[in-house]
Amino acid sequence: MIVEKLDIKKLAVLIVAFILAITAPFYVPEAFIYLIGLTFIFIILVVSWDVMVGYTGQANLGHTVFVGIGAYTAALLQVPSRFSASHTFAFLSAMPQAPIPVSIIMGGVMAGIVGLVIGVITLRLKGYYFALVTAVLPLVFMQTVFVWIDVFGGEEGFSIGLDRALGATTMGRYYIAFVLMIISVAIMLAIVKSSLGLKFKAIREDQEAAEAAGIDTVKYKLIAFLISSFFGGIGGAAIVHYRITISPEVYDIPLMLLIILAGVIGGLGTIYGPIIGGFLIYLAKNWWLRELVDRFLQGTHLPINDEVILYILLIIIAIFMPGGAFEEVRKRIKRD
Amino acid sequence: MLDVLTRILVYGTIVSGIWALVASGFTLIFGVGRMLNFAHGTLFVLSAYFGIVFAKNLGINPYVSFILAVILVGLFGVAMYRFTISPIRHHDIMVIIVTLAIALLVEQILLLIFGSYQTSFPSLVKGVVTVGGIPVPVKRIAALIIAIIALILLELFTNRTKTGKSIIASAQDTEAASLMGINVERVFMLTMFISSVLAGVGGLLYSQIYAISPEMSMKALLYAFAIVILGGLGSVRGSIVASFIVGYILIAVTTLFGANWSQFAMLIAIIGILIFKPSGLFGVEE
To answer: Is ipTM > 0.90 here?
Structure first.
């Protein structure tokens, strides 16, 4: 009975959220609609990170590598002429411009391939190695952008052209981003709720016991990582088509920390938590946090900005509520 | 050509000595407490900035500044362990996330205070000598000597003193050590102090030779990773040997191809080791 009641409550929340999301463009100012659309894509990044970290318990600190690979793949598929600056890959400049859905899927595929290679090398070892190697990757991939500056565009990046946007209007982009998020999250949710997801969780709880029970832990960690990196790439490619520009910040560590923060606040291994966490954190970061911090600290010369606040928040939550902020609140309410 | 080779050899040896300090500190706290401290590169940078503030802004004698900065960064490490790592020590992922967040937090604060300009610690000694036909500033040789002394002290401390042996005991089996009456929590704090001091000395020596900026913390962490993976996670001796291999590779790549490529070289080295000999040169079995 209790389970049923909870499900009805959850369903009600979902329906309300869905209606709000669908109707938002009619009463929310356009600038915010643009931001909320980006937030939907950010949610794909957080949920895909959670599939690996929250479900199999492997610390992936380099998720932005897959976001970046997806993003640069999509961007170069739209402007293949940039390959002419490279000796080895000059032949690719003859490619026709890819249709947008192809471009987004290819972003996911390329990210998945890189994820698979990294996974094959590191996931058969102890978890520490996976954490170390994934932490190094964003620093290295960042460098590719500066070393092959003519292809990747260096610090400034490049534009893919207005006609390659997800939609012709802000509203159009918003809805396409929304649909993309729903599809991606639904697929990932279906996977973690299936028997595959159970195996992931078994690995997280006790790797040796899982192995003793006949689960090929390396194989299932690899599958989780492949799914995670694929959707990370999808998200990266979607960002490019949403913003129509690309720059190296998609690889960068601040984005990684934002993903981690959203996941940790929401509660790892819950999917729903990271969705809510992703929504709150991305909007907070890009909407009001900076302004608030500026207003509060105006005149004082304290070395604090919005990023400092977010890092402190992450440290506090990770120490005091490792199960996620919502979980903690729910526990407190139940206790009373 | 021979000239370039000697330069790689001489400069590589010096830089390797510094990285040996940083990496052995990183591997020490991992070996003892199974903790990956992603803020280790931050300790490296932080001590350099402490030293620079003491020596340049407050006008304190460089030698005194050096010692003050090292002690301060050691205490910072202990406080970091006590208040942020200790409560979640058994939660591997959270330790990594929290230390990474601390690393970025400190980097951001340093950027806000000092900007991303490069700055350096005053030279401890002046003058230039010729080694194998190449002029080498004395401060670089001094750095190597200090690094070697610090490593010898570390070796003597862990193997010859009772406290040092309690560190080794805790590293081998935390539970058994605590049953033998060793206060493991205190051992961890002490290890964190030593680990931070090693990073701190490395940072000061580095910043009196080269310039340092807040962004250096991630790069230092990357080099430490490469070294400890090659040396074997948890093995101090392995990481000292490995830091010379990595140091020479680093200097060779930078001299021949330019600094942009050093990160690639590190990644390729790491991946190569993980494919062919994942336990490293002196891997510690669990």
So the answer is: no
- Chain B residues at the A interface, defined by Cβ less than 8 Å, are 30, 36, 38, 84, 87-88, 91-94, 96-98, 100-102, 104-105, 108-109, 112-113, 218-219, 221-222, 225-226, 229, 233, 260-261, 263-264, 266-267, 270-271, 274-275, 278, 286
C-beta of residue B204 within 8 angstroms of C-beta of residue B69:
yes
Which one, of B45, B25, B2, B36, lies nearest residue B205 by Cα? B45
Residue range B160-219, pLDDT digits in tens:
888 888 888 888 888 888 888 888 888 899 999 999 999 999 999 999 988 899 988 888
**Averaged pLDDT of chain A:** 87
* Domain-wise residue ranges, chain B: 20-214
Centre a 10 Å sphere on the Cβ of residue A182 and count the other Cβ atoms it contains: 15
Mutate to test the interface with A, among B34, B35, B93 (most CBs of A within 10 A): B93
A126 contacts: CB under 8 Å, gap ≥ 6: B286
Let me know: does A140 contact B264? Beta carbons within 8 Å.
Answer: yes
Measured over the CA atoms of residue A278, residue A281, residue A286 and residue A287, the dihedral's sign is: positive
